[in-house]
């Protein structure tokens, strides 16, 4: 039987999710429901790790990514359930199977379980033996489930189109509801994508969603500066005409870990 944990601070939503899981995947046993970071950390430290965790991001006592700093959850799949799409890029750094936006649709949950089905055998075997070889197999299967990353854009011009390789883009930013690609050589191109769509298609090893306005290329970052309230300011390299980019407290730790690899 498949086993899972729900991390959700709203009791009603937790019950609704549990009911939907029972309908979509009857053989999935919900071991427990926890409602915050501290409770989740305590539970995971004291119990064998489950195969699947349905995890809300904004919890009553912090963000769920704080859990990963306290306990090792690397050998299981995470299904993030949240009303916020700004954390999508961060979510896929934590072995996530999928990212479900609230209100959760039954069809989306079914697709998540379809992905689980493809790797369930490896998960079950790993949970029994914990061998490094099986963990390697598991992570390889996760990678195979994810689509290829975008390599270039077709940019429209008055006389036709040009190709813009992703590696030439220092950052993507929104200005007056238009998404622009700012290149390393100082050019600006309009791209016909939302930042949310770009997050899905860009390599998260190279690009980071800093806030609602910016997605940054690692190679464009010069330094980080402390800011009030636990926030960070990103300073780009000197030849970029962008004064500062503020990163929220909830994402500051993830940004530092992303850079410190």
From TrEMBL:
It comes from Geofilum rubicundum JCM 15548. Coiled coil: none annotated. The keyword Nucleotidyltransferase does not apply. Keywords: Phosphoprotein. It comes from the Bacteria. InterPro entries: CheY-like_superfamily (IPR011006), LytR-like (IPR046947), LytTR_DNA-bd_dom (IPR007492), Sig_transdc_resp-reg_receiver (IPR001789). The keyword Transcription does not apply. This is Two-component system response regulator. SMART domains: LytTR (SM00850), REC (SM00448). The modification 4-aspartylphosphate is found at residue 56. Pfam families: LytTR, Response_reg. Residues 153-261 form the HTH LytTR-type domain. One of its GO terms (molecular function) is phosphorelay response regulator activity. Gene3D superfamilies: 3.40.50.2300, LytTr DNA-binding domain. Residues 3-117 form the Response regulatory domain. SUPFAM superfamilies: CheY-like (SSF52172).
């Amino acid at each position: 039987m498949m086993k899972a944990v729900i991390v959700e601070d709203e009791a009603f939503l937790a019950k609704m999710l549990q009911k939907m899981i029972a309908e979509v995947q009857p053989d999935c046993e919900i071991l427990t429901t926890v409602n915050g970071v501290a409770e989740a950390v305590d539970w995971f430290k004291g119990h064998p790790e489950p195969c699947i965790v349905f995890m809300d991001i904004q919890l009553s006592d912090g963000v769920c990514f704080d859990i990963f700093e306290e306990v090792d959850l690397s050998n299981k799949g995470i299904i993030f359930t949240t009303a916020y799409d700004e954390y999508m890029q961060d979510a896929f750094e934590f072995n996530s199977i999928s990212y479900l936006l609230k209100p959760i649709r039954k069809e989306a949950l079914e697709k998540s379980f379809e992905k689980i089905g493809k790797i369930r055998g490896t998960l079950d075997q790993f949970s029994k033996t914990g061998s490094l070889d099986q963990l390697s197999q598991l992570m390889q299967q996760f990678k195979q489930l994810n689509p290829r990353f975008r390599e270039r854009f077709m940019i429209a011009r008055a006389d036709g189109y040009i190709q813009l390789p992703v590696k030439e883009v220092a950052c993507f930013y929104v200005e007056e509801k238009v998404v622009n690609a700012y290149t390393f050589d100082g050019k600006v191109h309009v791209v016909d994508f939302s930042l949310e769509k770009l997050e899905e298609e860009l390599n998260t090893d190279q690009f980071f969603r800093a806030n609602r306005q910016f997605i940054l290329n690692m190679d464009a970052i010069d330094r980080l500066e402390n800011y009030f309230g636990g926030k960070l300011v990103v300073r780009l390299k000197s030849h970029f005409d962008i004064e500062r980019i503020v990163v929220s407290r909830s994402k500051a730790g993830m940004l530092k870990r992303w850079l410190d690899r």
